[in-house]
Design goal:
This protein is mainly alpha-helical. The chain contains five helices and no strands.
Length: about 100
Amino acid sequence: MNNKIKIEMLYESKRKSKLIAYLIGGIGGSFGLHLFYLKHNEYACLVLALLGLSILVPQLMIIHVIVVLSGVIHTNYLVDNYNIKTRVECELLMGED
């Protein structure tokens, strides 16, 4: 099998979908679930911690809402960034420059 085809198959198996990321974000965006899907675990934990703290300190809920709403735009960037990084990793793994 051609090396470019192998790279493409590997990439397609690892890439993330914007549609799936937005669906997960729509369902569990307040919990940072879409961020876990995109392998941004630190940011996801920050969103989750902010949600927990906002239960104790209600004024923090405003910050949490702003972070979650900004995630609508940020998710698009994160998916693109993840897919570019994955493409490069696949090419390096298969020996393609």
